[in-house]
Amino acid sequence: MNILKLSRNVALTLGVIFGALSSAQAVPILTFGQVGEANVVTGTRAVNTTSINATNAVVQITQIDDAGTVPGFNAFLTFDFDSTSPVVLIPAAPPFITQHYSGTFCITSLAACAGINYLSGSLVDIALGRNAAFTLTASTPPAGDVIFTSDVIDHLDLDRGAGFGFANVTPLLNVVNGTINNFTSSISGTFSANIGIPEPETFALLVLGLLAVGLAKRRRNA
After folding, report:
1. Distance of alpha carbon 104 from its chain centroid, rounded?
2. Alpha-carbon distance 125 to 122, whole Å?
3. The predicted structure's pLDDT at residue 220
4. What percent of the chain clears pLDDT 90, i.e. is strictly above it?
5. With helix as H, strand as E and coil as C, how does the chain read?
6. Best exposed site among 55, 128, 134, 212 by fewest CB in 10 Å?
7. CB–CB of 98/91 below 8 Å?
8. Is 209 exposed, middle or buried (0-12, 13-18, 19+ CB in 10 A)?
């Protein structure tokens, strides 16, 4: 194998690797469920807007993308989401209720967003549901629709996603004056982000390994 052919083979291999790295895979970075059966979420209707809140709700983190943290521990969840558009009904029996929201959240080791920041950020999302359950979901792009920060999770790259699940909605989900009416509910959630591209040192070792394999082939075929 001549040098030109070797260079072409290595370049082709690197191109495949670069392509794979550039399409990094999104993975779950944190999943939680509330502790206890009591409803911890409150939806409050104003004249034609709704705020959805939880303050220092105790949740159990059942999965977290942090090698130094064993899941299955409790944390505090606080969030505040405010409607940014009127309700739109999707025809069904009963109809699905959709409404846009935006706001912030934090999941921390201490109350009032203090202590270790397991995950926090801001979301621009949409609610979808009916009867006793609905979800708030957000995703990128655009990048500003989901912003994450964390003291312990490294993988926060684009694309990002977030989903809050609301169950035991009491009373059943309904609309007054174009917005979701007052309610309480339980809460669960999951968040995802891309695993990102390996550090330059890791990639350099990979390149050197490929070159070594190519040179070994060349010596065998000489």
Report:
1. 13
2. 10
3. 52
4. 73
5. CCHHHHHHHHHHHHHHHHHHHHCCCEEEEEEEEECCCCCCEEEEECCCCEEEEEEEEEEEEEEECCCCCCCCEEEEEEEEEEECCCCEEECCCCCEEEEEEEEEEEEEEECCCEEEEEEEEEEEEEEEEEECEEEEEEECCCHHHEEEECCCCCCCEEEEEEEEEEEEEECCECEECCEECCEEEEEEEEEEEECCCCCHHHHHHHHHHHHHHHHHHHHHHC
6. 212
7. no
8. exposed
| pLDDT for 172 | 97
Q: Where are the domains of the chain?
A: 24-221
Radius of gyration of the chain (CA): 24
Alpha carbon distance 96, 80 (integer Å): 23
Burial code (b: 16+ CB inside 10 Å, e: under 16) for 49-87 equals bbbbbbeebebbbeebbbeeeeeeeebbbbbebebeeeb
Of 38-42, 67-71, 82-86, 210-214, least confident by mean pLDDT is 210-214
pTM exceeding the 0.90 threshold for the entire prediction: no
- Angle in degrees, 0-180, between the axes of helices 200-221 and 3-22, rounded to the nearest 10: 150
**Which amino acid is present at 35?**
V
Please answer whether residues 65 and 148 qualify as being in contact, where contact means their C-beta atoms are separated by less than 8 angstroms: no
